[in-house]
Amino acid sequence: MLLHVPQVLDPLSLMRCRALVEQAEWADGSITAGTQSARAKNNRQLPEDLPAAREARQLIVSGLAKSALFMTAALPKKTYPPLFNRYDGEMNAFGNHVDNAIRTSKFTNDWVRTDVSCTVFLTEPEEYEGGDLVIEDTFGVQRVKLPAGDMVLYPSSSVHRVEAVTRGSRIASFFWVESMVRSDERRRLLFEMDMAIMELRAQSPDADDENSPVVRLTSCYHNLLRQWADT
Length: 231
Ligand code: NI
Known about the structure:
The chain is α+β, with helices and mostly antiparallel strands and 231 residues long. Helix content is 33%, strand content 32%. The protein has 2 domains: 3-179, q2cbj1_9rhob like domain (Jelly Rolls, Sandwich); 184-228. The chain contains 6 helices and 17 strands. The longest helix is centred in the last third of the chain and has 20 residues, at 184-203. Bound molecules: nickel (II) ion. The site of nickel (II) ion (NI) has 3 residues, from loops. Nickel (II) ion is lined by residues 97, 99, 160.
């Protein structure tokens, strides 16, 4: 499932986040690449231990915690501490690759299986030319370029690339989620069901009556989640 999650960062957090990362000292993106992706990767990345990276990361993490849409779509068990990348000048693209299946963070000293890949855009689409995130999967080829503060999430099993930025800078945060529900198909079913239940609840005044079908459907949702989730 590919999903657009609007406004993970509110305007103030976005402004602060941008100020932090724009002024920081960027490094070659190959610092976190695997062998295959190192060949395809030509961008810059913010070293994780910079104070600016720490503060910016916290802004993203707080935004995620407030996003009900992210929570229900990703059903996060572990979230990799967000990283930041930048595409401009000579270091402006990242060719086709699949993200490494397992990542370890030096901050948490823990393994994260990458089920869901996430990108939070920090620059506006008008600020740069090119730089589309192109994702190829069972849903076909999708080109993604979102307003600053918005996020896209997609299955980490997808082949994807960032096309060359030919003008301006494309700055984003990216990270991975290990989901409580490993299967993308199951996550999608749960997400569809949860969204439909929320709509039904909003539409029917007696949604919380004890015999309401909404209550019965909600219990189906939770019982499915109980079967499939691994916490
Ligand atoms: Ni990637």
